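hiii so um. not sure if this is the right channel but i have a protein structure encoded as tokens and i wanna go backwards to a sequence. like what aa goes where. can anyone help
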């Protein structure tokens, strides 16, 4: 059943791509499914409201938000980018397999702040293969500086450095996992520790972007964050 479901998903996405390619001169909005829900964050305010508005501005994307993991699987065939911000479980094995099939089909995956945690001990493949690592701790909420370390489509138009108040995640790459390419780092004002803040997961098929920023208004409402998010979705959708 797992193989059949994955094949059906791949065939549906290929058909959708063929339809889009038949209208090469027509610019279409990127179709995004944003998944939220869980603990320690106001998902409805900052992801459902603020990030949806950021992505839909100027017609860049059409975004559907859900906080119900059971709705993910049937929607994957109709989207270009899956944007995971949730730290609640995705317990259904078929949905987990379908997420991997989605990325294996060359689709885009954007992983937000809460989704970069080691949330699910019973799904180690998620962190190892799709995230390339994860976080098990963070600084106390407060000010820190983000520095762009690489020129990339995701960092285009973003200041070389900027400050914000947020949770500085102690993101650590997994040496046995998918390699990451760090595009920006974060450094606390009270220590010399530096951690990846924006990065590409060098998954062999799909395009994956990790964004460790995003606790509340002081990240979601500032221009550098919004530019990074829009760039991430654009890059992941190509």
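sure thing!! here u go:
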């Amino acid at each position: 059943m797992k193989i059949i479901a994955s094949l059906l998903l791949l065939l549906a996405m290929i058909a959708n791509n063929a339809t889009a390619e038949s209208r090469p001169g027509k610019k279409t909005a990127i179709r995004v499914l944003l998944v939220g829900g869980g603990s320690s964050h106001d998902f409805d305010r900052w992801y459902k409201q603020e990030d949806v508005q950021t992505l839909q501005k100027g017609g860049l994307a059409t975004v559907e938000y859900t906080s119900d993991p059971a709705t993910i699987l049937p929607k994957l065939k109709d989207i270009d980018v899956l944007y995971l911000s949730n730290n609640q479980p995705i317990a259904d094995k078929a949905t987990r397999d379908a997420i991997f099939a989605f990325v294996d089909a060359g689709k885009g995956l954007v992983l937000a702040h809460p989704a970069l945690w080691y949330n699910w001990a019973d799904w180690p493949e998620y962190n190892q293969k799709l995230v390339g690592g994860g976080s098990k701790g963070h600084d106390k909420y407060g000010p820190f500086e983000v520095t762009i370390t690489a020129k990339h489509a995701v960092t285009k138009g973003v200041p070389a450095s900027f400050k914000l108040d947020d949770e500085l995640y102690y993101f650590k790459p997994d040496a046995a996992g998918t390699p990451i390419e760090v595009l920006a780092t974060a450094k606390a004002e009270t220590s010399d520790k530096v951690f990846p803040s924006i990065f590409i997961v060098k998954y062999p098929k799909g395009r994956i972007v990790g964004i460790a920023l995003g606790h509340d208004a002081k990240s979601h409402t500032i221009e550098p964050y919004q530019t990074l998010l829009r760039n991430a979705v654009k890059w992941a959708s190509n």
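oh and The chain has seven helices and eleven strands.
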